[in-house]
Design a protein that fits this description.
Largest sheet: 6 strands, mixed
Number of helices: 14
Bound molecules: 5'-O-[(R)-(carboxyoxy)(hydroxy)phosphoryl]adenosine, zinc ion
Strand order of the largest sheet: 9-8-7-6-11-12
Order of helices and strands: EEEHHEHEHEEEHHHEHHEHHEHEHH
Radius of gyration: 21 Å
Distance between the termini: 29 Å
Length: about 425
């Protein structure tokens, strides 16, 4: 529940991590089922926590895409019914625009309270270049947005236009998203799902320079020959027309980690670690989440693993004790390389497009090293960088409500025939 796009009254997330963790990734059928199971109680909890009723609402916001069709449809169908029953306008929001507005929401909240968001500690949710001129008043400055999550690694130029925002895609991954690489590498190393929080927690105990992973510059000819490459996420985005300096590729580093593991005989160690951390019982390998943002998970999806008596590690210490130094070094090197590549291309894009303000968002933006390094580099270059609160970095509904507000003001109401678009692209 968000007031006028600028104040979070409640943020309720039904975590499906426990459901999907045992399969090491999201299972689409289970995702729709869990959405269906939880949507009514989540909406009720969000209203109750905000101390409002349906009669107090100005509009209903819903994610139209991109995402899993079944899960999107559950939200759209429910939102339509609610909007129709209450005579409220329905606002369709792009999931990626939501992630961008998670940062803007934070900015507006800080502005609203008169509290300066500009602090120098990168471990807090805000960390910006120190000189202190607020970029917040009014929202007229274009910004470069990096959306880095399990499904996307996309760069957008975001421009305020008549109170609303327009977006231009200027870079993206040509294959895996950065979060996907985190998840795959974590799985390969016998760690939990989703992998990001595990790698985040363990990387700080390793030497980031131990394994020199590198990213090759993506060649223009690879993408200009023939049709534009398609990826799972936004398959309509024209990769071939983008500047290759701002294209990402994370499938190579995943393979490089795999090769390193094979070459250094680390496979059996990883399998032993997985067996210790996630004992297999009743035919289900169990991958519980590392408790990373407990405040985010207010409602736990019904967890079927409760029937099975697992020995579940609750903290990173359990995994840390099971990781020899070379493994920690590998983890640290992987993370260092991924963040280095994200930074290199994002700052190059900011320079090329004259953006002085960066919005870094999406699940991977919860990463501590990422926040520290982006903040340091922005400070060196005299740029501003904003992140969402850690809790609003990963998927949530507050960011969708925040993004809907300018659309509502602009009269951008969804048509009654609104339907899910799993590959909905943002901007042009
Ligand atoms: O935005 P999100 O919740 O869902 C998508 O829209 O994809 O992002 C989930 C992704 C996962 O790949 C997860 O491993 C990654 O974000 N992630 C992290 C961290 N927390 C979540 N990656 C690195 N460090 C983290 N602390
Ligand atoms: Zn997301």
């Amino acid at each position: 529940m968000v007031e006028r796009g600028a104040r979070t009254l409640s943020s309720v997330v039904a975590s499906q991590i426990a459901t999907h963790a045992r399969y090491g990734g999201v299972v689409p059928e289970l995702a729709s089922r869990e959405h269906l199971r939880n949507i009514v109680s989540v909406v009720r909890a969000a209203l109750a926590e905000a101390s409002v009723t349906l009669a107090d609402l100005d509009a209903i916001a819903v994610t139209a895409g991109p995402g899993l069709a079944g899960a999107l449809l559950v939200g759209i169908t429910y939102a339509k019914a609610l909007a129709f029953a209450r005579g409220l306008p329905l606002i369709a929001v792009n999931h990626l625009e939501g992630h961008i507005h998670a940062v803007l929401l934070r900015e507006r909240e800080q502005k609203g309270t008169g509290f300066s968001p500009y602090v120098t500690d990168p471990n807090t949710e805000w960390a910006l270049a120190p000189e202190g001129d607020s970029p917040l008043t009014p929202e007229t400055e274009p910004a470069l947005a990096l959306v880095v999550s399990g499904g996307h690694t996309h760069l957008y130029l975001a421009q305020p236009l008549a109170g609303s925002w327009t977006y231009t895609l200027i870079g993206r991954t040509v294959d895996d998203a950065a979060g996907e690489a985190y998840d795959k590498v974590a799985k390969l190393l016998g760690l939990g799902y989703p992998g990001g929080p595990w790698i985040d927690a363990l990387a700080r105990f390793g030497d980031p320079h131990a394994v020199p992973f590198s990213f090759a510059q993506i060649k223009r000819k690879v993408h200009l020959n023939g049709r534009p490459a398609r990826t799972k996420a936004a398959k309509t985005a024209p990769i071939a027309e983008l500047d290759p300096r701002f294209l990402f590729s994370f499938s190579g580093i995943k393979t490089a980690v795999l090769r390193y593991v094979e070459l250094h005989g680390m496979r059996s160690e990883a399998e032993a670690r997985a067996a210790r951390l996630f004992p297999v019982q009743a035919g289900h390998p169990q991958h519980p989440p590392l408790s990373c943002h407990p405040e985010r998970v207010r409602i736990e999806a019904k967890d079927e693993s409760k029937d099975l008596r697992f020995e579940i590690p609750k903290t990173r210490e359990d995994a840390l004790a099971l990781c020899p130094q070379p493994t920690l070094d590998l983890i640290a090197s992987f993370q260092h390389a991924v963040i280095g590549d994200l930074m290199k291309k994002t700052f190059a894009a900011a320079e090329a497009h004259g953006a002085t303000r960066l919005l870094v968002t999406g699940g991977v933006a919860a990463n501590r090293e990422l926040r520290e390094r982006f903040t340091g580099e922005a400070s060196r270059r005299g740029l501003f960088v904003g992140f969402p609160t850690p809790a609003l970095s990963t998927d949530n509904a507050a960011m969708i409500a925040a993004a809907a507000w300018p659309r509502l003001l602009a009269g951008d109401i969804a048509p009654p025939e609104l339907t899910a678009d799993p590959s909905l692209a943002l901007g042009v």
